Fold this protein.
Amino acid sequence: MSVIFKEYKPTPALMPYVELFWEGQFNVDNAQLLTQKVLPNGYLEAVIHLSDLHCELPQDTAYHPSADFTLIGLFSRPYEVRFKAPVHTFGIRFKPEGLQSVLRVPAAEIKDGFIDLEAFTGRDFREYCYRLRAASLPSERIALSEAFLQKKLEINSPELYYLNRAAEVIRRRKGLITLEDLAGIALISPRQLEREFKQKIGMTPKQYMRIARLNEVNRILESGKWKGLSGIAYDSGFADQAHFIRDFKHFTGENPTAFIRDREQFIVNPNMAGIRG
């Protein structure tokens, strides 16, 4: 096994902003080069490297070592990450509408990209990351993270409003809702909702619905409880198999058959899969 990945739920107070914490070990077998394709999942990832060994991320036409503390933006297409040595990381998966509330970084400004978190955060964030590195157990890193994020929320005093509710409804309904019904639940006009999504999150509600539906497809695939592509298309709410295949290829770069065959070449994080408390 070249990748070991574990996920952990946040406390209820953080759930409006944080989907989960995770810890990953990549290129565990110490291969000369491990290349993985990361699929879009509708979230942003704060990645803290726990050692001096880093992954490499695409920038322009080349690959460069990632920063010590990297924020991965909301992607709409897959991207590749490379590991030339064993890499150990701790991550915070932020809901796109929650990132601004915690770190004061707008999700729309880093769509389809990566930023060095040190350039956007203060001394307290750097000190938090150094404490993470010094901790020896995942439980210690989670406790440090929850205390840090809770303090940020107390300072920022964010208010939950219709954008938070709308994004959460999309995820809970696995993308299966119309824009008009979503706007009705959020108590705002469809035009206003579209404008807010675009300005704050960086994509339209319908684009976010498509990614939420892709997450459901990947949950079904990971469960192993599926019978044929038509069954996956039906269970994840697609009108027909052809529509499912087109959407799947758009977001993954592969048709479903090739993806299933080469599954180990992808990093798939379809929202709360394989949670451990």
